[in-house]
Amino acid sequence: MGRKASRARWRWHLAGAVLLAALLAGGWYWWTTRNFRPDEARWPDQGVEVAAADGAVDFGAVKALGGSFAYLDATRGGGRGDPAFAANLAAAREAGLLVGAVHSFDPCVPADRQTARFSVLVPRDDRLLPPAIELAALGSECPQPVSDAAVESELTILINQLETHAGKPAILKVAPAFEETYGLAARFERHLWLTRTRFEPDYAGRPWMLWTANAALPTLAGEQPLRWVVARR
Fold it and tell me: What is the rounded distance in angstroms from the CA atom of residue 209 to the CA atom of residue 194?
């Protein structure tokens, strides 16, 4: 009985040690992923994407953290613009950051209406970075489902109109589900903005220009975790 009890205790101790090691490894992986920022030596151009939902952001602190630019969510579909856009634009510029605007494409809304909203809120200003068009919403989610061909057609119109307003080519901010559904990254010759925390994304089949490397980075610059973005030179 003594040997059996000793072996049982040894097995329990071993199982406990393995469990503890697994918990420590999981905690380390969670912490490093949560606080991940790409190496500045490799990726010197870094910044943030900001919207009203992120709360107050200290763009001076973003600058101090090594940020050189900020993309600001401006409009979504044909609805009202982001209420913090104008204030964030002024604050980011005052902090010495380059600034760009993001429009979220809504396949349920005609391109003309979306362009009209963007053009009213976002000034025609050569100092602005190229506009970014976020592609995440799917036509199948519309009250009246929109065909793949119609989504591509309206997106083509929207790209052309926003580029005319901005005077420079747009960047396509493509979500994984959107690319999986439509596969448009190969058909639009525009720079890409992809998203994947910690690991470089490759789901678009070609290199990215912007990369959201951490979708929720805790920093002293904001009340909420910020979307930390890297630019490829």
Answer: 8
